[in-house]
Design brief:
The chain is mostly helical and 58 residues long. It has 4 helices and no strands.
């Protein structure tokens, strides 16, 4: 949970909307007021950073 908290707000928001609330990219884009491609890239960057953070903690 600490690793998630270290992510930038927009990356954290994208991950929560996608994986916790299980929303489709179209809805996430509407909520975040961005394009679907931005949702995909933000989510990908967030996952990369989160995995790196978790690797550092282990």
């Amino acid at each position: 949970m600490l690793a998630l908290g270290r992510l930038p707000r927009r990356q954290r928001e994208a991950l929560v909307l996608r994986y916790y609330l299980d929303l489709p990219e179209t809805e996430i884009a509407e909520i975040m007021r961005v394009r679907q491609s931005t949702v995909r890239s933000t989510t990908a960057r967030a996952l990369t950073r989160l995995l790196r953070e978790l690797g550092d903690e282990a």
